[in-house]
Amino acid sequence: MGDLILELRNLSHSYDGKEISLNNTTLAVNKAERVSILGPSGSGKSTLLRLIAGLEKPYSGTITIQGKIVSSVNQMVAPEKRNVGLVVQEKALFPHLTVAKNIGFGIRKNQEKAKIISDLLNLFKIEHLLNKYPHEISGGEQQRTALARSMAPDPELLMLDEPFSALDKELKEELYAELDQIFKERKQTIVLVTHDLDEAKVLSEKQINLENT
Ligand code: ADP
Ligand code: MG
To answer: Where are the domains of the chain?
Structure first.
């Protein structure tokens, strides 16, 4: 067992106080571990990531990140103080910012900003796009940029919510191979939401099925 990064205990959520959207989920993720969450549409996969990101407050249960309780019924740590990143399916980029500025948006360490941006441009093979705006680049390039942006603040935990569903098969497979390498090299802890078992197997060591309750 490595260092525990994320721990969910008996986590439930309800958007309206009545219908339960996520029922009593328990999960532990160690440093550098990559876990996929599978489950049919409506089973609460996105809700789970939103809870971990601090965008929703749990109905019951607790979320612990790096040993500190960040969410419970009576305790909420702000999203920006959780050291987590979230990449969603689409429209994730700021349309009025260039690729380089999008990537730099969340970086707080000012002295290192230029280097972090250039390293990520390089890592995701988008150096040539640095001055382009999101509408000037392809869907695959947009997702590379979104991934680079989410990694720029060096989050302890990176969460991906079906980030490849808008891409065609060839692009996906190319990106899987690159990401697999990038995540391993950086020992990035990942929670990936997908409904694609093949994708889950390529990008994670552990697959968890979220039951539709
Ligand atoms: P998944 O990502 O697995 O498709 P979601 O987490 O998006 O599932 O949704 C789980 C359940 O919560 C669904 O029944 C959905 O309709 C409901 N839900 C999701 N977002 C909201 C919301 N903002 N307000 C009310 N209900 C929601
Ligand atoms: Mg979803």
So the answer is: 1-83+156-213, 91-154
Question: Residue 126 corresponds to which tokens in the numbers above?
Answer: 């988008």
Query: From the CA of 43, how far away is ligand 2's center (Å)?
Result: 8
* pLDDT of res. 16: 87
CATH of domain 1-83+156-213: 3.40.50.300
Nearest CA to ligand 1 atom 15: 42
Q: Is 137 helix (H, G, I), strand (E, B) or coil?
A: coil
Q: With a 6 A CB cut-off, is 44 part of the ligand 1 pocket?
A: yes
Q: For the chain, state the CA radius of gyration.
A: 17
* Residue 186 contacts residue 154 (beta carbons within 8 Å): no
Cα gap 204→191, rounded to integer Å: 8
Residues of the chain where predicted confidence (pLDDT) is lower than 50: 212-213
Residue where the block lists tokens 């995540």: 183
Cα–Cα distance measured from residue 183 to residue 181, given in angstroms and rounded to the nearest whole number? 6
pTM of whole model > 0.85? yes
User: What is the C-alpha separation between 79 and 195, in angstroms, rounded?
Assistant: 26
